[in-house]
Amino acid sequence: MNKTYSRGRFGRGDNFGERNFKKLPIMTNLRRRIRDKNFLESLNNGYLRLLLNYIIGDEELDIQIRDNYINVYYKGGNILRIRGEKSFEFDEFYFYDDCKTERKTHLLNAAKEKDPVAIKKIKELRDRKNKLIGLIKDGNYSDYFSEAKKVMDSWWNSMEKIGIAHNEKKVQHQISRHNKGQDSDYTVLDLEYQVSTKSEFCYIGGRPKKTSPRFDIIAIHNKTGELCIIELKKGLGAINGKLGIEDHCESFKYTIGRDEQNLFLAEMKDLCDQKCKLGLIDSSITIKNTPPKFVFAFAGTTQEYEIFMQRCRKENFSGKIIYLNDFKLLDTCK
Fold first, then answer.
1. What domain count does the chain have?
2. pTM, whole model, 2 decimals?
């Protein structure tokens, strides 16, 4: 049921001219990359390899490479940040369970005002965090992740009680975990890619100049090698949401869609290479030297899928719309 539509204001003809892909630019300051050679060597063959193998073997965890560090995610939340062999981080405020009576920002503001109660509370949270981090430093990986998961689950439960959920993060996490093999049409390479205002392909559209569009999923088509920028839409409420079809297309057109120097493509190829070498994705995955494609992934019933495609046709979207089925990114609606 994959369909494409005729060229319009959001079609390929609007986004790209002809490009020369014989040579990609040499990148010196990639944001999605481990640049520290000692850190990378430890992840590949040294002290951190055992930890990385443990994380890869835990089906509830997902690993993403960031700006010279690694984030390990659990249900969409950051359960561990790794910056080096002895540099590990966990957010101490996951231990904070008083958000119903006092939000985190209020506690921090009170501490800045030298409130002794707030200062004492923050110290208690930090001490608990340091004790937890001690487990990972001692090599007790099973105990660390077991305890950290309990802490995060408890925090999410307390947030849900005051009406704050993070369902979108959970869905992205599951999509990343379930799209790394040949049972899907795509391999997820990155999540939550935000275009910097300092980037060579920073946003130049009609919204405020400081706009920094964030794209849900960066993925590689397993068969064609095409790089896809995927925006996730769930249910019919996604049609007229805060950012509708037209807004997402406009964000792509005036950022990655205008990247004539192929800087984004080069960055993603480098990220793909590092992930393959670290065993985070299948080593056979490669990215084709063609312009990235903007794609919608729709989660909902087959009837809703058809309605969503009709709306895309109405707004002259000429790109691909893929179907999200049990967190698998598929070219056809089955």
1. 2
2. 0.87
